[in-house]
Amino acid sequence: MGLTITYTAPGRCGIVGNPSDIYGGKVLSCSVPTRARCRLSLGGQELLPEDLRLWNAATSRFPLAEPATVEWSTDIPRSSGLSGSTALLAATLGCVLEARGEAPGLSSVEERSAFAELVRDIERNEAAVMCGYQDAYMIVHGGMQLMDFAGKHPVNPGPHATLKQIEAPIPFLLVTTGVERLSGSVHGPMSQRWLDGDREVVDAIDTIKTLAEPAAAALAKGDLATVADAMTTNHRLVAGLGGSGESIDLLIDRCLRHGARAAKLAGAGMGGTVIALTEEPEVLESRLREDGYTRFIRLQTVAGVQKVA
Length: 309
Description:
Number of helices: 10
CATH topology of the largest domain: Ribosomal Protein S5, domain 2
Oligomer: single chain
Number of strands: 10
CATH class of the largest domain: Alpha Beta
Structural class: alpha+beta
Number of domains: 2
Largest sheet: 6 strands, antiparallel
CATH architecture of the largest domain: 2-Layer Sandwich
């Protein structure tokens, strides 16, 4: 075999503001310390993953001239609302571009934003996934970011987002329900209602757009009561539009009963993962384990997409 290339990318979780990124809003989001990996080797016998959707999406836009062996791995829980498929696509696309001699620029915010836009464009238009913008941006940039998606739209991508890195303690615990779902099953119907001018959706999204910026400022100051109020309002509005579900509602109720200040969906909805605001993550995790939950992630900032030497 010839050239071997490896890229990795983290998952992400929405803290406040999701899913307003699709509608020109602001989102406070954080990278997740779980990663997807793609290892690509050129030459020799072609060996591809069993599920070809993401691979075909990347290579239909950027074909390879040589056969490739592709090895994927991930510790992001599957279909859990943490953007595992976007992370895997970003890692794969990094490998494919480098194999073509067109390695993605990752040395500046502007270069990373351009790569994030490319990842989202390929996921939306080649893989036919109804996805937001915060996923690709957080996975490519990493860290904890307040992102402004002004000018973006469910159909038209608009200008690049602007980002502000947030430096603050991260008093959160992620808990997965074990229920798998696809983001498009939530984003698709909601986006269509918004495009149709449904006042319930339009008004809810307009309110969600306003939550992330004051929540980010409050988090930086240690004002967790304001962060909790924003999270609670965010989830109430998303749930009112049909974006929650029985497993999520039950887990949120248990988080609150066990002492969390607030809890909400970390992603698109209808299953997946809850983000709980708590200053005692060890205590909350212990109590939720007694309720039968088994998958927890202590939230911390990690690097965005990167090449592995």
